[in-house]
Structures are given as structure tokens and as C-alpha cells.
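CORE FACILITY INTAKE
Project code: CF-77B
Contact: R.S. (postdoc)
Sample description: multi-component assembly, four entities in total
Requested service: structural model of the whole complex
Turnaround: standard
Below are the sequence entries exactly as provided by the requester. Do not edit them.
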Amino acid sequence: MADTTTTNGRVRIPRDPSDDYTQELAAARRAFVQERTGTELRHVGHYSVDPATVQGNIENFLGVAQVPIGLAGPLHINGEHARGEFYVPMATTEGTLVASYNRGMRLLSESGGVRTTVVEEHMQRAPVFVLDDALEAREFGNWVDERFADIKAAAESTTRSGQLSYIGQYSIGPLRYLRFNYTTGDAAGQNMTGKATLAACEWIRANHPASPRYILSGNIDTDKKHSRINMLLTRGKRVVAEATIKKEALQRLMGVDTETLFWARQIQMAGSFLVGSANNGAHAANGLTAMFIATGQDVANVSEAHAAVSYTQLLPNGDYYWSITLPALIVASYGGGTGLATQRECLEVLGCYGSGNVHKFAEICAAVVLAGETSLSSAVLAGDWVSSHDQLGRNRP
Amino acid sequence: MADTTTTNGRVRIPRDPSDDYTQELAAARRAFVQERTGTELRHVGHYSVDPATVQGNIENFLGVAQVPIGLAGPLHINGEHARGEFYVPMATTEGTLVASYNRGMRLLSESGGVRTTVVEEHMQRAPVFVLDDALEAREFGNWVDERFADIKAAAESTTRSGQLSYIGQYSIGPLRYLRFNYTTGDAAGQNMTGKATLAACEWIRANHPASPRYILSGNIDTDKKHSRINMLLTRGKRVVAEATIKKEALQRLMGVDTETLFWARQIQMAGSFLVGSANNGAHAANGLTAMFIATGQDVANVSEAHAAVSYTQLLPNGDYYWSITLPALIVASYGGGTGLATQRECLEVLGCYGSGNVHKFAEICAAVVLAGETSLSSAVLAGDWVSSHDQLGRNRP
Amino acid sequence: MADTTTTNGRVRIPRDPSDDYTQELAAARRAFVQERTGTELRHVGHYSVDPATVQGNIENFLGVAQVPIGLAGPLHINGEHARGEFYVPMATTEGTLVASYNRGMRLLSESGGVRTTVVEEHMQRAPVFVLDDALEAREFGNWVDERFADIKAAAESTTRSGQLSYIGQYSIGPLRYLRFNYTTGDAAGQNMTGKATLAACEWIRANHPASPRYILSGNIDTDKKHSRINMLLTRGKRVVAEATIKKEALQRLMGVDTETLFWARQIQMAGSFLVGSANNGAHAANGLTAMFIATGQDVANVSEAHAAVSYTQLLPNGDYYWSITLPALIVASYGGGTGLATQRECLEVLGCYGSGNVHKFAEICAAVVLAGETSLSSAVLAGDWVSSHDQLGRNRP
Amino acid sequence: MADTTTTNGRVRIPRDPSDDYTQELAAARRAFVQERTGTELRHVGHYSVDPATVQGNIENFLGVAQVPIGLAGPLHINGEHARGEFYVPMATTEGTLVASYNRGMRLLSESGGVRTTVVEEHMQRAPVFVLDDALEAREFGNWVDERFADIKAAAESTTRSGQLSYIGQYSIGPLRYLRFNYTTGDAAGQNMTGKATLAACEWIRANHPASPRYILSGNIDTDKKHSRINMLLTRGKRVVAEATIKKEALQRLMGVDTETLFWARQIQMAGSFLVGSANNGAHAANGLTAMFIATGQDVANVSEAHAAVSYTQLLPNGDYYWSITLPALIVASYGGGTGLATQRECLEVLGCYGSGNVHKFAEICAAVVLAGETSLSSAVLAGDWVSSHDQLGRNRP
């Protein structure tokens, strides 16, 4: 039975502690919403996902957001893990986005495809220990270094797939921030690393003579927040996509010359640097968000994942070497939302669902981002940026 | 008829230029996917949204992502525009998230509610003009200042709701970056400001003696990218949510003392500052992303919107003043994806669909973020962060 | 008589409140040092500056640091204010520095000289007002905008040469940071703006109904600290130096090709962006520090002044356009240390001492920085960076 | 004989390649300046330093800048290396500075003194290797890791005191930035690390199968430039100074309450974070610059050294714990300008000249910075900031 008690005049949302993930409870909550706000959740209540399967992904479930998916591709990738032609499901409500990525994919494919590779991977949890003074904090840091094997054992005792790679240390006054870096298999790993690091911290507290106080996050992880430390030291996967754009193909498909692109690049890099941007390219966030929603990634990670460094060179023959490096791509092929109904289907379209596929998926993400960079950067210069949005992005009465 | 031609060995996605937004075309594309990849898009093909309505929001539509929505609330808000008890639909696949925000809402409500207000609003497009040297660039800037009225007229001729507030100017070498700042009514306004600024730039080119070359974006907008300029000068809405947390309520509901929270706050601010974080708080991205997906916002804007500055003080009576300032909250109550089937319903639940509601919606967003800050910050200190994820976030076989 | 009393066992430095700026007191303090530390200040006590003239520049004067000055030049400048051939006194103890800048000056001079101009100027003091909540803070901001004329009058009543240009406003929670921007004539202006802003704040407090509490600096000035806001909005002078380097001259004098320089530039910009550098060029700090020490500038301002944005393009004919923009060059031709004995002489060598010369001096600074950029960037590529330091920078037994 | 030839109409500064460091050449250059600019360098030509001793520190020597030195102290330090009462020579032309630091020293001394310690040390040179693509760059990185012992041997073959600690690696596209981290004994070490890293890079080029191209600095060192990577990973010494300020002493000496200081601290931290400041404290640059000039440090390093993180807590008894962490303090007790006439004397006053003293000197620097923080922060709140500058900083007719 739905539990709609009122406490202190506060009307509570219906729940059933014994089994909250049923069609009935979802319907009861939609009815509750209608009663409280007058809004009938007709479309929200239309779904094919089984409520029983969303346990672990949501609380107070009452239906779904239907986010339109468009298909882009094929995109030719010559990656370390992703190889071949890919059709990419992108969930978005921003008109023009799919069309724009699509034409970038064509350009890249006609230029011989995209090379991709994951160059580094680390997922973090970063507790902070509070010592009596800076000298003790330094000595504590040395103590931690010396006990790395024990600490690693304590951390890894909590997880099958997580492995502690190294502990970065950062001192401020009497504080010692320890940034635990893990590999996390096919999962994104935020929960796994939280649990493992808690075990490690408890081991430290139990074994260090001072039994120092700690906080499980000192805010340098930096979870769900862009930061310079993540750009530098990688969070999730550090992935590179690179391609050599044919001068002829760029002119034919985008109406822009490679010289012009490179000239403009100097100007955009100066601007990005001046304003302290998280990304000196165009719009990695667009493609990543659309893929993240479609494939059940934790979409809030776009805050971190959208950071990027573009590096390009104009080649002597007029072709254009273009690379993009994503230093904080947090993705999973397993766990989280990846197993839900539509999300799993979309991962399967990419051949990326389940164990052993996370690097392949990361590579596809980076390749898609590069496609979007070529398309938008060209549109800005060719003058069809505004006109295409006018044509494809009209969505008001 | 669907158009599945092959060009240069490239198999193209089915399209029908005459009417691409139909059930048939969507089905044809799902069939195409199945043929090319072997994946049947059964769940993706299950939706109630009418394909005809997604024109302007997506291209190559083939179905939807079903993202689970959970309900949180009530949240008591004493805002300038948002007033009363709100139940908040949150679309996410991250277990624990809804539950955590929910308990934060309870704490805030029991502490007398959240005050909210939009303190500033600006949406930008930032072209760059290329002059012969720095001196000419400076003089060009003066010329622009003197013609502000004409430039404003040119820009506003393209839009009903956009208004040009001011043009920020930034010099690098011979380059003059002009950052056009607009109010954009109830729309987020990226397209509107692009179109208006294009008109303004064309006016400038036609009227300035040097007819200088320009690029419509010099990358300091900074669209879909976190940046320091956005934090400083606002992008979208700058919104503040603030509350005075009762010492007693925090202890009772969260198991933490306000003194402990403030002590930890010093440590977390030091950490955030050290690592160059976009946000010195906990996790604004989580709540914003869930609300953005549910309500049809452009979710890629989380890259910008997640930036925040928390400012708190421990009061003499032991209560805890807590504010969060979101300097780059990009939201709409109209246009974009807000009118789609489930998205509109969710906006209506908040009483925020359509004209005249964007400030109310922005205030609710900020209040929700504050709720999440109180909950996570407390969980980290009370030691139930990991255990609650273990209990609510298990989502693997 | 020197006053060397002991308080609480604390031996105090000799002082004479009636006339502390004499040879006798300086000698007494040197004697005190010798007595307390055993160090005879023979060289420190050797100076020609009259102790009476350092009042207002130093307290507890006991002698001078003799910092070696080397001469570089001539540097050909075609500036807005600086025009002709300049010989530049540089005070440093870093071997190779003068030689390196000197060869850069030759390259620039042989390439037709440097164009320079001051494109913007603002000196700041940034108080913060504390209101009851964010809404009041916003309304307070509007109130300030409406009273700008009165506030300006209050501020300018304290100074002959300072003029209030505009007040930037930044909101965080209930706080309203007001960033007062002034022009300050030929002075650097930190004290002048402090005094003027204090008067303005007192006027505000006296006239605003809430009589709000304020702090004269909320740390966003940001005095003596590099910051992004200073790079964006200028602190002191924003100065540009630009030149077109002849391909032939670069090869002949530096042993490097312009193509190689531009190729390397892409790599260095990527690196600078990645690591969050205050300057995407080579080493503005070196030249500026040497000039600041020689000419009596407040050398601590190097912390801010060293920020820079380099913007370059390889021209079709193989020549190399090179600009450097210094967004926070804080300099004076009058006041501060500029009137002291050696400092004034060095300013006079540049024709920059006294009223009306600060823009000229700022332009020379920027031109010198550009010279240093060309020399070091070339040395890194030509392979003589290490060897030249080995040859010129050996300074140990 | 002085060589004043004219090349291409360019009048060259007199030099004597056979022996350029003599009184005669210095005088010839002063005469040359007078002839070219009309300025007699009377005071610049007054010095006691022997021209022969400045070889390796300067080129084209013609005299000295006489920078006034004031004495502050005593400052009681309970450091790891610096212990006892110190009198500090500070070279500056900014009135009030010495007085302000002096009263901060008194406050700290009366509060029991300052604890100081060096918690980390690294000096860097950061070459970048250019590979064919990202995958090769990653594999190259692994190759480097595996040959660390050989690379270390190659690097250390060039230096007696430098030791290679570790090589940080950072990937962008096909680029692999290697950040060599050294300890450098009592020297600052920029030249030493440049030379050692050159040798290491040459070893790599000779031994790696691809013999990859490299640039000796990819601009992530980041030499003479503030950067986030330096704050995070330390450049030079990472030094902490900490003290517990007595509530009573602060009130008595500064006229401010510790509660007020802590309240204001929250506001200043919010401001610093918002604007992207290199330092969330007050003005480390002032004290460091004055000490650097006095003691022959490379003053341009103030650009990096002024970065700081303040971390404070109000204690239950009302006392105020205050720490400052300098993450990039680049100092030497030997080499560079430390051995020059006045510079050496000033180091000797602190008992810091020569081998084995660099940690002691670093600790004193940090303690002095903390003294300045307490004094200025209090002055801003007590309202005597402007009045004291008005009293002590008047230096114009």
C-alpha cells in the first residue's frame, strides 16, 4: 500500500518500503502529482521499461522522460579498440545537433577516418587527513607512501574490479589531501572508489599512531565539477581522437579552406586562453551529452567530460592535422544506467554493451566529438552556422 | 519513400527530405539500424511523443531514450518568483540521487525554506574582429561604443524577445573580441543571440570604413564550455539560493553538527581553490542535470551551469547560513525542448511551462541545488555517504 | 637619539620618531644588525642616495641593495607614445638575461621595429558590501548604479589625478563586490584608489538606507596577485607590442626558421592552456622585473604584470607576425620609487621620468618583453638555450 | 678598448670581448648613455660591488640600482630549520611595507612564534616529445618509464647537486610532455635542470627507436609564469608557515577581533575563488619581493612564488589558527645573485648564506609572508589601511 502520510503539515510522496518499484507505486505517485499540482503525467507514464529494473537507478520512480534520439553516421574509426563504421544514437532536443555531427562524420570518414586511443585512465576519491601541523602532515604522507601495499590491499578488499594505481598527495597547512587513483574496469567507478577509499582510510586511522581525523572528500576529487587537476591528471579516461582532414574534402563538404581554419584557430586559442575556458575547442559537450543520455551514462559527468584540448597543425601539403584530447571522459559500458531498456539498446548499436567494452566506447565518444568540432568550426567560418539553426532549429509556434 | 542510397561505399541513413518526421521514417531507421548492427530497438521504438512534434529538436529521429524520473519534495521556497511547496521531477540513472536531494529538501523546508532570486541575466554571442594592428583595434572599439544604438537596432531587428544590453570588449593584439550580452525572454537564447549578433556584425562591416573581417565566435562566449569569464560576468541567469539551517534540524535529520560542517567547509574551500575547481561546493551538476533532462533543457549546458560559489557563515546561535550562487544557469521555460511531450509535463508540475516562467524555474533550480549541497555535505561527514550508495545504488547483477 | 628599548625581552630596532631618515639612524641600525647577528653591512652601507629622500618609500632604512644594471639596445619602437631608438637599463642578477633581450632587440629593430600602444587602463580597489540577502544585494547594486555621479564625486574629492571610470559589480549570495575602476594619471595608483574608494564607501554607508557594512577589499582587486579577472578586465595598463619578424632576419640572427617557430608555437599554446598558465608566451617576467627594479616601480607588481597573451600568425610570405598583450602592466613615471636617485636616472635614460610619460614607459616595457620573447623562443629551438646560460650564467666558484 | 662600432646605422653599446667586467667598461657605457640620451648616471655609477664579480650575473654592466633596505623584526620562528629571532632586511620602495610586516612580526612573536616547514621540493624542466600519433606517444611514455634509471643517469651526469626525482607525463594528441622534477641542493636550479634535461633528452633521442623530435620546453615548466600545475605539484619549495594568533594579542596590537577576521575570511575566500586568483590571501608578493631583492634571489620568480593558499580556523577558545602554504617558492642560498656584495650580506644577516641553508631561508620567507598577511588583513578591517599609507607612503612633492 502506498504510504502518503503527512508529517508536520508536510505531505509526503507515496512510498512502499516493502516494494517500491512497481507499476502501482509509479501510478500512485503520478496520481499524487496530479492531485497536488493539477498536472496529468500522461506521457511521463508511457514507457516500456519495467519498474522493477530501475531499482538502484532512481528513487520515487513515476515514469520516464522521453528524449528524442537521432541517428548519425556512419563514422569510420581506426581506433585501438573501436574499428569500423559506426552509427551513433544521439539523444538531444537541440535542433541541428545531429545533422551537424553527421556531416562532421562524413568529412572524417572521407578523410580516411579517425584514429582513437585511450592514453590514460584514473578514477578518484580524494579524502583529506587533518594533522596537528604541516610537519606532521608531511610525515604522515611519508608514512602513507611506505604503507602503500597495505593500503592498497585494504582498498581492494571491497571491490572485484577496482585497482588502486597510486595515491597523489597534496599539502595545505596541516592538511594532507590524498587523491586515490583507481582503474575501475568497465564501470565509471565513482561508488566503487568511494567504498574502497573509505576502507583504506579506516585502515589508515586504525594503524597510524595519531589515528588522524579525515573527511572522505576534501573536494579535490573533483567529482561532478570541472577542475584543472582533472585536466592535468586525468579523470576517467584520457582519450585522443585525431584525423588528417583532406584540404579538398573540407572545401567540398564544408565550404572552407584549411588555411582559413588554421588562421581562425590561432584566434580561438587566444580567446580560450584569455577567458580561462575549460576547452579550447568548439563544443565537446554537445556530442557527449547526446551520447551520454542515449547510452545510460551518468549525464552529470558532462560537467567534467566536456573539458578538452584541441591541438592542430597545417601540413605542408595543405591538409589539416586535427586532434582533440578529452582528459576527463567518465564513461561505463556496464553498471549505472547502462543496463536499462533503451540505454542498453543504444550501447548495443555501438557494440559496446557489457564487459570489456569501455575503452571501445570511450574511443567512439572521442571520435564523435572530433566530428562535431570539424562541423561547427567550419560552419562558423563558412557562414552557415546561423542559417542552419534557423532551418533546423525552429521549434516554437 | 525512405532514401537509403549508397555514396562511395558509404551506406546512408534513410531520410525523406519531403517529410522526415513520421512514424514510418522512424521505423525505417530502426530497421536500418537492426540491419546494419543486429540490434533491435524495441524499447527505443516505444514512445508516445508524436514524431511530427520533434521537428526542430532532432534530425534522423528513430525513437526515444527512456530516462527514469523520480519525484522529490516538497521543497519550500520563498523566492522572488517561486513561492510555495514544490515537487520536483528528476530524471537520472544514478541511484541515491533523488533520495539525497529529497532529504535535503526536507531539511531546508524544516528550516523555514529557501530564499531565491535571479540577480543578473545575460546570454552571449562573442564575435571577434580582426584589425590591422592593436591601435586600429582600439579605435575600432571606440567606434563600436559610439554606434551602440545602431548596432543594437540591427541586432534586435532579428528577434522579438531578445534585447542587447551591452557589448563587452576585450583586446588581444590586433583582435577585438566583442561580447554581445542580451536578455532573451523565456528562451535560453543561444540561437537568438547568434542570429542577432550576425546581423549586428554585418551592420558593422557595412558601416565601418575598414569593413573589417570577423568570425562570429572568437571562443569567448564561451558556449557549452565552463569558463572564468562566465563565472564572473554571468551566462544565462545568475541565481542565488540561501537558507539558514537550524542547528537542531541538521543534527536530527543529517546527524551532523553545524560546527563540524563549518569546520569541514574551510577544508573543502582550500581544496577547491588549490585544484582550480569550477565549483567550491559539492555537486550542483547532479541536481541540475536531472532537472534539465526532465524538463527539456539543453542538457549540454550543464557544462556551464554546474559552476557555483558557495558562501556560508556560522551564526552566533549555532545556526548555519548557507548560500549558493549559480553564475551560469542557462534555462528556458519556452522554446528548445520544453514543449515536447514529457518535458512539458514536468515543467507543468513545477508550474513553469511557457511565457513568463523562466525566472521562477531558475529559482527552483537553485533551490534544488542547495538541497543537494546540504545532503551530500552532511553525508560525507556523517559517514553514510558510502553506505547509502551501497544500499540505494546497487544496479548490477 | 636612537631608541633601542627592550619590551618583553624583545629587542627593538633603533628608531627616532622625531627624525628617522638620517645617516646616523641608518648607521645605528647597521650597527644594531652587526651586534645582533655578527654581520657587518659594509656594502649595504655604501650608497649615494640621501636618506632624507627615502621617507615615504621605506621604514627602518639602513642602506641599499646594489643590484647590477646592464644596458640593452638600441630597440627601435614605432609606438603611439614611444618613438625612436631606446637603450634600456635592466637590473638583474640572472646571467644571460641582458644578452638575450639585447639580441631580441636587434632582431626586432632589423625587422622594422616594434609597434606599441596602450589599449586600455584601469586601476582598481574592490570593496565588498554585506547585505541581508541576495535580493537586497541586487537592489543595493541598482542603488549604486543610480548614484554613480555622487559616488564618483565622493571618490574624486580625495585625489587630484584619479578619476573613477566605472564600478563593476559581482554578486555572491548576500555579498555585493564593487570593483572601482580608475585612471590614475602617471602614478600606479594603488594608494590613490584605496583612499578614493574609502571615501566612496563612506559616502555609500552614510547615504544608503541600510547603511550596510563593508570591507575595503573583498580580495577581487586583486592587488599583488595574478588573477583571471585582471587578465580579462585589465589592471594598470593593457599594452600591446607587435612586430613582423623577417624570415631572413630570424634565420640569420637566431638560426631558426619562421615555420619552425610557428610549429612550436602550437605546441607551446597547447601546453600553456593545459596547465592553466598565466602567460602562454615565454618569460615576460624576466624583462619586466629587470626594468621595474631599475626604474623604481613597485616590483611586487610583477606578480600581476607578468601575465600575457601571445598571438601570432605565419604570413604567406614566410614572415612572422608576433604580438604580445600585457593585460595587467602596473607602472608609474611619477610617485612611488620613481623619484629615487638611481631609479630616476634610469627613467630619464628612457625619457620617461615625470608627468605625462607613463604611457610611453608602458609601451617601452611591452616592446622589451616582445624582444625577450623572440630571443628565448628561438634559443629553445635553435639549441643554444642551455649553452648560452652555460657560457654567460656561470656564477659559482 | 671599448668597441662602439656602428652596424647598419645601429649604434652599438661599448663592449670589450676580452674583458668586459671592469670599471673602465662600466664607465664607458655610462658615458655612452650620457652621449646618446643626455642622462648622467651619477648615482647608478656609485657602487661598491667589484665589476669583476658580476660576471655570470649580468651583461653590459654599467652600475647599480640602489634599492633602499629597511629592517623588520625580530620575528620569532620555531621552524624545522629556522629557529630563533630573526631580523629581516627588506628592499622596497613601497612606503608602509616594512612597517606593516614589522607589526605582523610582533603579533606573531607575541603569539608564540611561527612554525615553518618545507613539505615538498621540485624544480622542473619540461620538454615535449612529438610522436606520430597519440598511441605512439603513449607507448613512448611507457618506454620512458621503463628507462627511468638510464635517463636519470644521463641527466645527473651533468650536475653535482641536482637529482632527478621523477618524470611527470602529460599527453595531448601526439605530444608527450615530460616534466622532469629535480632536487637542486642550495641553488634555485633553473639552469641546472635545463642542462640536465637536455642531456636526458639527447639520451632519449639517441636510444629510442623513433628518435623523436623534441622541444626542450613545451611551456609546462612553467618557468617565470604562475600556473595551476605549479600550485598543485610544487615548483621550488612548498613551504608552510602556521601560527596560532592569540585573541587578546590581535585585539591589542591590531585593533581587530578574531571573530571578525574569520568572518571576513569567508568573504575574501569567496572573492578569490570567483575571480580565479593565484592566492586567496592578502599580499605574499610584497614581502617576498622585498626579501628577494635584498638577498639576490631571481626576482622574476615572484611571478610564481607569490601564489599561496591560506587556510585558517577559529578555535573554540577564540584564538585563530592561521596557515599559509607557498607552493612555488623558488629560492637559493647559493649561486645566482646570492654571492654579490650586498646580497650576500643580507643573507648573512639571516644566517642563510651558502651551502645547507636553503631550507632555512625558505622557512624564513614563509614566516615573513605570514606576518604580512596578519598585518594587512587586520588593517583592512580596523580601518587603518588607508590612513597608514597616507602617513607612511607619501612620496610626492
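Facility notes:
- The mean pLDDT of chain C is 95.
- The radius of gyration of chain C is 24 Å.
Invoice: internal transfer
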